[in-house]
Design goal:
The complex is a heterodimer of chains A (269) and B (152). With 269 residues, chain A is an alpha+beta fold. Chain A contains five helices and twelve strands. Chain A has a six-stranded antiparallel sheet with strand order 2-12-11-10-7-6, with no helix packed on it. Chain A has a four-stranded antiparallel sheet with strand order 1-3-4-5, with no helix packed on it. In chain A, strands 8-9 form a two-stranded antiparallel ribbon. In chain A, a hairpin with a 5-residue loop joins strand 4 and strand 5 (142-146). Chain A is globular. Chain B is built from four helices and six strands. Chain B has a single domain, classed as Nucleic acid-binding proteins (OB fold (Dihydrolipoamide Acetyltransferase, E2P), Beta Barrel), CATH 2.40.50.140. Chain B is mainly beta and 152 residues long. Classes of the chains: A alpha+beta (269), B mainly beta (152). The interface between A and B is large, with 67 and 69 residues.
């Protein structure tokens, strides 16, 4: 191997070494536990003294022990679900055969929240005193979350990503989002095509975000959908900081540019 | 990166290093995260479009590359036993997903000869989802995205 390396430039070798290292660490099982470190000890701070969430991140991933779908996109663990209400069964809908219902993203329709949060693409967070903006590479979707104490907007049309407002509870950023369209809730469709999870238009989500250790954010997501579930339920995920992705940054993602599979009918030529 | 757990092992070092010395620098940027042949789709349903019971493996000349969202597409002119050329179209991951793993646009050079493995489209066309690209010297990379659909 030493002889072969001699054929390459030092820079190439360095890149390859870094890549091999990355491949190795990607393949390792998670080693971080669930016991939270004292946030104050590890949390970087903004000028106004709040925990600093500016940075580039991986999408939320599972805590150890959670049920994982076959999809590499993160999905909810069924064990966390509250019991379904009578009449809430349409939450688990089989595929209907109507492509726009079964997989609207085939048509470059939005993933929506929360599904888009888990879509398996990088994201970058920008934080000021009054806003947290989360930019996802996937579909270049942005969530602009006011932190200035304003209430939810009234009398507006339900949307794919809902209407978020945030506030601080100590070192935890709490984001409550309401006014969603009825839409896909996660990527369980990929896990079991016989199931397709929808949330209703009564959904309220609460995200509780705090630093867990110096490169891990605890992301606790509560689903309160009173048309479907008998009570709210939660699942904690982790979001890993990826400062090594910052140099390359996020890329443009215009889904319509070369979408060749509308409705699952790919057109290659 | 436990979302990649379906890809249990990184590519052995001898695959990355055991290559001809005439390798170009851009090819060094390839980062193959794992062994295995699981198809991945960045935003579409794999199950709706491709048939995991119909694996395909062809060798041909790269005729076109579309390094665009939502998925890269690359095209291969494949010569059949009868001498007839057939153009195959392969879909892959999203450009950003691939570039973040070190697989760049320059990794697929028009005119180069490669072997592609994947899964055929359900529609009977010569479209397929390309999961693995192998070069004549044995190097291999994965062209699927890091997320979403996997079938084993």
């Amino acid at each position: 191997m030493k002889k072969l390396i001699g054929h390459f430039s030092a820079r190439s070798v360095a890149i390859l070494a870094a890549a091999t290292f990355a491949a190795t660490i990607y393949s390792q099982p998670p080693i971080y536990g669930q016991s939270p470190a004292p946030a104050a000890a590890v949390s970087p701070r903004t000028k106004d003294g709040k925990p600093d969430f500016n940075g580039i991140y991986q999408w939320p991933t599972y805590l150890p022990g959670a049920e994982r779908g076959r999809s590499a996109a993160t999905t909810f663990d069924r064990k966390n679900f509250a019991p379904l209400k009578a009449g809430g069964e349409p939450f688990l809908e089989p595929r209907t055969g109507v492509p726009r219902h079964d997989e609207p993203r085939d048509f470059c329709m939005p993933a929506g929240f929360p599904a888009g949060m888990f879509s398996g693409n990088a994201m970058q967070w920008f934080q000021t005193k009054n806003y947290l903006t989360i930019v996802h590479e996937f579909q270049r979707m942005s969530r602009i979350i006011p932190l200035d104490g304003r209430p939810h907007r009234q009398d507006i049309e339900p949307s794919f990503y809902g209407d978020p407002v945030g506030h601080w509870e100590g070192d935890t950023l709490v984001i409550e989002t309401t006014n969603f369209k009825r839409w896909m809730m996660d990527d369980y469709f990929y896990t079991d095509p016989k199931e397709f999870r929808m949330h209703s238009d009564a959904l309220t989500t609460t995200e509780r975000i705090r630093w867990k250790d110096q490169d891990t954010i605890s992301y606790l997501l509560t689903i309160d959908d009173p048309k479907i579930f008998t009570r709210p339920w939660s699942q904690e995920f982790q979001i890993k900081a990826k400062p090594e992705w910052d140099k390359m940054g996020l890329f443009e993602y215009v889904c319509e540019e070369n979408n060749r599979c509308p409705g699952g009918k790919c057109q290659g030529n | 990166m436990d979302a990649l757990r379906w890809y249990p092992s990184p590519v052995p070092a001898d695959i990355l290093f055991g290559m001809a010395p005439r390798i170009s620098r851009s090819l060094l940027l390839f980062l193959a995260l794992s062994a295995g042949s699981a198809p991945l789709v960045a935003h579409h349903s794999f199950a709706a479009e491709y048939d995991d019971t119909q694996p395909v493996k062809v060798t041909g000349t790269v005729s076109k590359v579309e390094w665009q969202n939502p998925h890269i597409w690359f095209y291969l002119d494949v010569k059949g036993d009868d001498g007839k050329i057939t153009n195959y179209a392969f879909s892959g991951g999203a450009p950003g997903q691939l570039m973040r793993r070190g697989v760049m646009k320059s990794s697929l050079q028009i005119g180069s000869v490669i072997t592609v493995e994947g899964f055929k489209a359900k529609d009977g066309s010569n479209n397929a989802f390309g999961t693995k690209v192998t070069y004549p010297d044995g190097r291999m990379v994965f062209t699927a995205g890091p997320d979403n659909q996997t079938k084993r």
